Amino acid sequence: MNVCVLSGGFGGAKLVRALVETLGGANVTAIVNVGDDLEALGLHVSPDLDSVLYALAGLMDEQRGWGRADETWNALETVSRMGGTDWFKLGDRDLGLHLLRTQALRAGEPLSAFTARASRALGVEATLLPATDDELRTFVVTAAGTFDFQEWFVARGHRDDVDAVDVRGDARPAAGVLEALAAADLLLIGPSNPYVSVGPILAVGEIRAAIEQRRVPCVAVSPLLGGRAVKGPADRMLARLAGGTSPAHVASCYEALIDALVIDEHDNASGLEVEAIVTGTLMTDAESRRRVAEAVLSVPA
After folding, report:
1. H or E segment at 44?
2. How far is the CA of 298 from the CAs of 217, 221, 262, 293, in angstroms?
3. pLDDT tens-digit profile of 51-85?
4. CA-wise closest residue to 189 among 214, 171, 152
5. Among 22, 56, 55, which residue's Cα sits nearest to residue 126?
6. C-alpha pair distances (Å), 114 with each of 44, 95, 101, 121, 133
7. Residue 301 lies in a domain
8. Which domain holds residue 180?
9. SS3 content of the chain, % helix, strand, coil (to 5)
10. What are phi and psi of 32, to 5 degrees?
11. What is the CATH number of the domain that holds 25?
12. pTM beyond 0.85
């Protein structure tokens, strides 16, 4: 079975890893959010792509949920001492990837092509695709102002309540994205924030249209457990923008896109208008990842 997953960085990376462990990398394609991308200290950083890449390569820091394991911070300490911008944390090991990516993009190589090279170099068999090779940026609208996603999320600690999400850019799908969607036996939406992780992928009109016109089932995994986010502000955003944090509120973000929603056993499927697949969705080890993978794969293709 070939599966294609829309993924953000934290929960999405866990699901992609679970699928690779279950199906093998050759059968898994991840289409990853790039609305979070930014330039930090002159370097092009793709946080969600990197999270998926590091997770599949066995390099992710499992405690933080982002960045490289066994990281050191000497370069950033120098930046801080010299008065540079240091709110976006770039570790010494992580810098190598950003240096090479920035060099490649400045030489005219598409982000998708560089991502494929990086995947091969790190021994990742699954296919990782940015949603687009074009510039696409996510902004959040708050009472305190409109902020670039990373400024709001990292620099401001996502403390400002979000009134709206503004995804900017006239973007087309990256090379291989539409082909992967068409070839999949099952389409999946990872347990990522529906507004700022999955939303920017669906803002690429041809991607949304391909899913709307799908010939195979599409299953989403809720990012909430007992109505609460495992990490990040997804629960606060759903409460404010969708009116609540139930599975039905999660599914409302994907109206006309999904046939089923995987929800945690601590959540109530009441009011859900798509099929509910109930399991323990917290992924902390190989066994729990296998459980979630089996749940999403249980929908007949």
Report:
1. strand 43-45
2. 11, 13, 10, 9
3. 999 999 999 998 888 899 999 999 999 999 999 99
4. 214
5. 56
6. 12, 15, 7, 11, 10
7. no
8. 3-296
9. 40, 20, 40
10. -115, 145
11. 3.40.50.10680
12. yes
